[in-house]
Structure formats: structure tokens, C-alpha cells
Amino acid sequence: MKLELRGITKRFGSLVANDSISLTVQPGEVHALLGENGAGKSTLMNVLYGLYQPDEGQILLDDEAVVFAGPGDAMQAGIGMVHQHFMLIPVFTVAENVMLGHEPTHAGGVLDLAKARELVREISSRFGFEISPDALVSDLPVGAQQRVEIIKALSRDAKVLVLDEPTAVLTPQETDELMVIMKQLAASGTSIVFITHKLREVQAVADTITVIRLGKVVGEAEPTASSAELASLMVGRDVDLTVDKPPLHAGADALVVTELTHFDDHGQKLLDDVSFTVRAGEILAIAGVQGNGQTELTEAILGLRHRVYGSVKLGGRELVGSSVRDILDAGVGYVPEDRKKDGLVGEFSVAENLMLDRSFAGPFTKGLGVDFAHRDEFAREAIGEFDIRTPGGSTPAGRLSGGNQQKVVLARELSRDLQLFIASQPTRGVDVGSIEFIHERIVAVRDSGIPVLIVSTELDEITALADRIAVMYRGRIVDIVPSDTPRSTLGQLMAGVVA
Description:
The chain is of the alpha/beta class. The protein folds into two domains: 3-235, Rossmann fold; 252-495, Rossmann fold. It is built from 17 helices and 22 strands. It has helices at 41-48, 71-76, 94-99, 113-127, 142-155, 172-187, 199-205, 227-235, 294-301, 324-329, 339-343, 350-354, 372-385, 402-414, 432-447, 459-465, 487-494; strands at 3-12, 15-25, 30-34, 56-61, 64-66, 79-82, 160-164, 191-196, 208-213, 216-221, 253-263, 269-279, 283-287, 308-314, 317-318, 332-335, 365-366, 369-370, 420-424, 452-455, 468-473, 476-482. The strands form five sheets. A six-stranded mixed beta sheet has the order 6-7-8-3-9-10, sandwiched between helices. A six-stranded mixed beta sheet has the order 16-19-20-13-21-22, with helices on both faces. The chain starts with a strand and ends in a 5-residue tail after the last helix.
């Protein structure tokens, strides 16, 4: 099926999320929609899927204009979508999930589960998915759950399949398997729209690439285009995609984590005897598929989690049992994985956010109040040093782009006297140009002799920044390996396969 979008515009108040976007997806083509988070890719696909109504423009299928009042209309017309966050019910079987919403029935309205099972077997066999129709979704690994989502779409006779950031939660091996599946689907005649911000994957699988920046189509490219060319289109300027990291000159062990264990309020063990060290002047990167204990690890070190056992020593000082305030005062800088929820107060100005955690003491206080002159001068210097694109220090932080919000958090944390720097998902939702800057600052911290702990689900980022890599799986560190370890080996570790 041929898909064409003509002049699609979608506004949310004064924000123009999609600005007269046009593109064509041919039958049996893998068409990559490439752009940074916030560029408007997902909004455009939500318009296609009937979740949003376009303010202007047309959707055409096989040269005929169509209007979708909702996802049901889109599915009826042959549009399928696999969302970044899976729409599966964990306690249901694969067959039950696949039939949900268009249940086959016997005479009298009785559910025909056997027909659903047979449909799952047929699609699974056709594409080599190896998915049992009777398996509980909760028992399946993430990669298999994604295949269930694809089976759901194909069971409804999808001729156009939209994959929204499909590799965000996959191991490298699962990503490679998905690339093979996409090529098989395209070869069978299915048109695929592949939404991503990852250059390596686009080059591996796309037939055509459309690049979106700030809600507009800024160009089309062939998959033979270099990473530098694609990055330049995404950002609007030349970008250095390599991390210039001087040779390691690490000192003594500075952060020593021993048998760190954490239970949630229901008694489930989320961290299981985690032990590692980070030397002064070294970057230790934590790799793993999201949800394997990385968040709990950083928050346990920061004192943000209760029911934490074991030991975390920084420069010989025990941190377990200390308050968050005491840990921060011990010289721990922390960039949380969710800057909007945990890193910033959106309604506060940039200047106010830059002094968070230190507004109660010098140098930001004067008598019993805030020294506003010092605060504003500090903000001016930080805005310049960290290239924060803002009209000024009085601008609410919530109005900045994602990359500039991240720079505010980074500037605040790196302006303190540090003994340890922790950054969780440091470049999530950040454009390629800001990634370049953030990586440079992280390496500069390392080169100043401070231990650095990085958590990221982006394997390219892990291998570029790390001096050593610790891989987490189900709350445990399964191995700590050199930074030049092959991606295939890292992928096996991330899947829990230990030699």
C-alpha cells in the first residue's frame, strides 16, 4: 500500500509540532523518519494513526484521501502501529492480547480462542517469530513482547506498519533481529515507517530517509549517507560524532560499592549484592536494558531509596544511611534520568534552578535571604560557559528545549566542589549538537581526576565514554569489562548470558 502525507500541520496552542510535512512511503519500502526527540516524528505518526486530527493537510492511501476519526478507522484502513511503550496486558496470553479489540467468536457470541491461537501460529511461522500463542506476556523478554505487538498489527491485515522508536528497550541482538524482521516484512509487501533518532539503525535498514527538524522536513537522504551528513541535517550544522578522550590516568579507588542490596515496599529485591569500584579520574559506565536496576542503583547511592543494605564508600566515608543533603554535601553531583521530574522546577527561572540545593547557604545567601546579585551573576556565567540557549536567567526553565534544560542541570551539578559525578541517561531527549557538548564536559570531569559513574541505555554512548563497562541484568552486575568489548558480547551480557 502506498502512503502519502501532504502538507500535514498540527498545532498545540502556539506550538507548531508539525509544519506542512509531506512524504511518500512506497509499497514494500522501509521509510525512516529521522529526527531528534521533540522534532515532531511521533506527533506526525499519531496524526496518521487517528490519535490526533491534523489542522491542515491530507492523508492518502493508494492515491485516495482518507480521514481517520480514531485508531479504529486507521486499523480498518490497513494502518498498524507499534508504540514505543507496548500496549500489552501482561497477565493475558499472546493469543488473548492479539485478539483483544477484535475478538473472533463462535455462534452465540462465544470467544473463539482457538482461531486466535491459529492466527498467532500462522503469522509467527511466516516470519520466524517463534512465539507461543499460549505464553503469558509477562513471561516474555522485551524483544519477544515487541514481536507480539507486530503480530497484533499484522493480524488486523496491516499494509502500513509504523514502528515508533522500536529499539529503545532492546539489546543489540534483539535490535539486529528486529532489523531482519523489518526487511522480511518489507519483502512481503508491507510498507514500514521507522521512527528513530539512531543513525546506525537507519543506515542498516532504511530504503529512504526523511529528516525532520523542529517540526519541518529539512531533507531526504539515501541510506548510503554518512553519519556526519545525517547528523548535520538533524541539527542544522556540522557535528563531531566522536568523543575525544585522552588516555586514562586513573588514581586510587574513590567510590567503593560493596554488596549493595535494595528491596521495594513489597519486599521484592531490586538490587542484588551489587559491588564495584570507580577510581579517581575514571568513567565507569553502567550498561543494560532499561528496568534492570540502573535507576535503583543511582538513587540508592544518592540516599533516595529506603531499605538499602550494604556499603557505599566515597573517599572512605560511608554514605549508606546518610541523608540526601549529607550525600550532596559530601561532593556528589547528580544528573537524574528524568530532568523534568527530578532535575528541574519548570516554573522556576534558570537562575533559581542553577542554585537549587544551595539556596540555604553561601555563596548564594546574604544574611537571612538570598544574595540575588551573586545569584544573577553566577547564572550569567553559567549560561555562557555551558552555552545555555535562553533569553536570560529570569526565563522559566520549563520553556527551554530539552537540550538546554539538560545543560542547566549539568551546569548546576558541575559548578560544585565534586568528589563524585553521577549522570543517569545524560543525553536522553537531547539533540546531536548538545550531545557533543555534554560528552565533552563529562570527559573533562574525568580528566580533572574525579570519579564518574554514567548510566545509559545508549550503547554507542556507553562505548564512547567508558573506561570500563559494568553490565546490569535483573538487579545484578553480571560482569565488568573493558570499553573495547565487542557489541555482540555486551549484548549477550545485557540479556543475562554469562560465559
